[in-house]
C-alpha cells in the first residue's frame, strides 16, 4: 500500500533545504521500495501569501490524511508586521496542536568529523549523544489567557499563562521513559519546580510515571542548572524530558555542541507515532535564497521519519551513514566549516 508524505517547504531557507531532503527521500523510496507518494502544500508565510492564513483548513485536512509530514521552516521579516493572529508561527503551532503532535524528539549527536566545529572543547563533546524530549502542544506557547493591553495609567502590560494538566505531563513523561529504555536507561527531567506551580506538578507526575520504569535512573534538574550543565559536562545526559519552552531553548543550546543548529533534526509525534519531521532551526532569513544553508538537519529529519513513522530502520541508518560519508569527504556548509575542509553550498 502506498504511503502519503505531505511536504511543506515553508519560508526562508525552508524550500532550499527541503528540496535536498526530498532528493534523499526519493532515493530511499526507490532503493527500499517504500511506496511513498509525495504531495506539496504551503505553511507559514507562504500560506499567508497563497491562502491568506498561515495554515489553511484544506492544508490541515491534507496533513491529517497524510502518513507523515516533512516540513522546512516558517516565518521571516516579510510577515513580521502582519496581524499577530495570522503570523506564520501561528500556523506552525496550530498544525502541531491540531494533529496532537505532543512528543518532540530532538537528538543532539556529535558527528566525530565535526568535533572542531563544536562550540566546546573536543574532550568535552567527544561521543556526545543526547536526546531532548520536548513537550510540544502545551505550556506557555498555548496557555490561555494571554493578553497585551494598556493599563488605566497608560502603561502597557502583557502576560502569558503556563498551564500543564496531569495527562499532558504523563504522556510526555512516558515518551521520555520509553526513549530512555531503548537508550542508556537514564532520564533527566528538567523543570523549574522551585518557582513554578506547573513545574511542581510536572515533577510529581514524572515521579509517578517513574514507578512503571524501575530500570530507568531518573534525576530532576532545574532548567537554569540544566542550561549550565549542558555546556559544562553535556555527556552526563542521555535523555532529557522537559516542557515546551524549556525544550525549545535547551535544544538550541545543545545544537551548538554538535557544531551547528544546521545539524539538528526533529520528530514531532502523536500517540501513534504519526509524525511531522523538521529541522530544529528556523527559516534563517539572514541566509535565505543564498544557497548556503546546511541541509543536513532536514536530511536527518527524513531519517527520523523512516525510523519513527515507518520502522524502516535500514533505510534510516543508511541516510545517517550517508551524512557521515559526506562529512568524511570534508564537505561542509559554512556553518560547520573548519580549517582544511571544502566549503560547499546547500545543493552540493
Ligand atoms: P525561528 O524563530 O524560526 O527559530 P530564528 O530567528 O531563531 O528563527 P533560525 O532560523 O533558528 O532563526 O536561525 C538562527 C541562526 O542560525 C541564524 O543566524 C541562521 O542563519 C542560522 N541557521 C539556522 N539554520 C541554519 C542552517 N540550516 N544552515 C546554516 N545556518 C543556519
Ligand atoms: Mg529559533
Please give a structural write-up.
With 348 residues, the chain is of the alpha/beta class. The protein contains eleven helices and 14 strands. The protein has helices at 14-31, 45-51, 57-65, 88-98, 122-125, 166-182, 197-210, 223-232, 244-255, 296-308, 313-328, and strands at residues 3-10, 36-40, 68-73, 103-109, 129-135, 147-150, 156-159, 186-191, 217-222, 239-242, 265-269, 275-279, 331-332, 342-343. The strands form three sheets. It has a ten-stranded mixed beta sheet with strand order 2-1-3-12-11-4-5-10-8-9, sandwiched between helices. Strands 6-7 form a two-stranded antiparallel sheet. Helix 1 (14-31) packs across helix 10 and helix 8 packs parallel to helix 9. The structure holds adenosine-5'-triphosphate and magnesium ion (MG). Residues 252, 282 line the site of magnesium ion. Its cofactor is Mg(2+); Mn(2+). It is an enzyme of class 1 (oxidoreductase). Residues 4-348 form the Isopropylmalate dehydrogenase-like domain.
Question: How many helical stretches?
Answer: 11
Q: Note poorly predicted spans.
A: none
Which oligomeric form is depicted? single chain
Largest sheet: 10 strands, mixed
Distance between the termini: 33 Å
What integer value in Å does the Rg equal? Answer: 20 Å
Structure class:
alpha/beta
> How do the strands of the widest beta sheet line up side by side?
2-1-3-12-11-4-5-10-8-9
How would you spell out the order of helices and strands? EHEHHEHEHEEEHEHEHEHEEHHEE
Beta-strand share of residues: 15-25%
Could you give the count of β-strands? 14
Present as ligands are: adenosine-5'-triphosphate, magnesium ion
Overall spatial form? globular
Helix fraction bin: 25-40%
Average pLDDT works out at: 97
Site (Important for catalysis): 141, 192
Protein name: 3-isopropylmalate dehydrogenase
Pathway: Amino-acid biosynthesis; L-leucine biosynthesis; L-leucine from 3-methyl-2-oxobutanoate: step 3/4
Main location: cytoplasm
Amino acid at each position: 500500500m502506498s504511503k502519503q508524505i505531505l511536504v511543506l517547504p515553508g519560508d526562508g531557507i525552508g524550500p532550499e533545504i527541503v528540496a535536498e531532503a526530498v532528493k534523499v527521500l526519493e532515493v530511499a523510496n526507490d532503493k527500499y521500495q517504500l511506496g511513498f507518494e509525495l504531495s506539496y502544500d504551503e505553511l507559514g508565510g507562504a500560506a499567508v501569501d497563497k491562502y491568506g492564513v498561515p495554515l489553511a483548513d484544506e492544508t490541515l485536512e491534507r496533513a491529517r490524511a497524510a502518513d507523515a509530514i516533512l516540513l522546512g521552516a516558517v516565518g521571516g521579516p516579510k510577515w513580521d508586521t502582519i496581524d499577530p493572529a495570522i503570523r506564520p508561527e501561528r500556523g506552525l503551532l496550530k498544525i502541531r496542536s491540531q494533529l496532537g503532535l505532543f512528543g518532540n524528539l530532538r537528538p543532539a549527536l556529535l558527528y566525530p568529523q565535526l568535533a572542531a566545529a563544536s562550540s566546546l572543547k573536543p574532550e568535552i563533546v567527544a561521543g556526545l549523544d543526547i536526546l531532548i524530549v520536548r513537550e510540544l502542544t502545551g505550556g506557555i506557547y498555548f496557555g490561555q489567557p494571554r493578553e497585551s493591553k494598556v493599563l488605566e495609567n497608560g502603561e502597557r502590560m502583557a502576560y502569558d499563562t503556563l498551564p500543564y494538566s496531569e495527562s499532558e505531563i504523563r504522556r510526555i513523561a512516558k515518551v521520555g521513559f520509553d526513549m530512555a529504555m531503548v537508550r542508556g536507561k537514564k532520564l533527566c527531567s528538567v523543570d523549574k519546580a522551585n518557582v513554578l506551580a506547573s513545574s511542581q506538578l510536572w515533577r510529581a507526575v514524572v515521579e509517578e510515571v517513574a514507578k512503571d520504569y524501575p530500570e530507568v535512573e531518573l534525576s530532576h534538574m532545574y532548567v537554569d542548572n540544566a542550561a549550565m550543565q549542558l555546556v559544562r559536562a553535556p555527556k552526563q545526559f542521555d535523555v532529557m524530558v522537559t516542557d515546551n519552552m524549556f525544550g525549545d531553548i535547551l535544544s538550541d543550546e545543545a545544537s551548538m555542541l554538535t557544531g551547528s543548529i544546521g545539524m539538528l533534526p526533529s520528530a514531532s509525534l502523536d500517540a501513534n507515532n504519526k509524525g511531522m519531521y523538521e529541522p530544529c532551526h528556523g527559516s534563517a532569513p539572514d541566509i535565505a535564497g543564498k544557497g548556503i544553508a546546511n541541509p543536513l538537519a532536514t536530511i536527518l529529519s527524513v531519517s527520523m521519519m523512516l525510523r519513527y513513522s515507518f520502522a524502516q530502520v535500514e533505510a534510516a541508518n543508511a541516510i545517517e551513514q550517508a551524512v557521515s560519508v559526506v562529512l568524511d569527504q570534508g564537505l561542509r556548509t559554512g556553518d560547520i566549516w573548519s580549517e582544511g575542509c571544502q566549503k560547499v553550498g546547500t545543493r552540493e
